[in-house]
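Quick one: structure for this chain?
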Amino acid sequence: MSHLEYYDYDGVGARNKQQFKYSQAVRVGDKIECTGQGTSLYLYGFFSYQDSHRRMEPRTREFYMEINAEINQAFRNVELNLRDAGGRG
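Got it. Here's what it folds into:
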C-alpha cells in the first residue's frame, strides 16, 4: 500500500509549511497532488484585489505584471513543485 509523502520547495514552500502547516505537494505512489501556485500578497503587505492574483517567483519573491510573464511564471512554479516532489516536470 502506498503512503503519503509531503514536499515543500525552498523559499515560499518552506515558509508556508512553517506558518500555515500545509505542503506544496503530496505524493502517493506515482501520483502528485499540488497546491495552487498563486500568491498570497496579503502576506507581503499588499491588500488590493487587483494585486491578489499576480504571480510570484517563489524563491526571489519577484512579482510579474505583464500577463505572458505571469503565465510563464505560473508554469515554472508548477514545474518546480512537481520536480521537488520527484516528478519529471
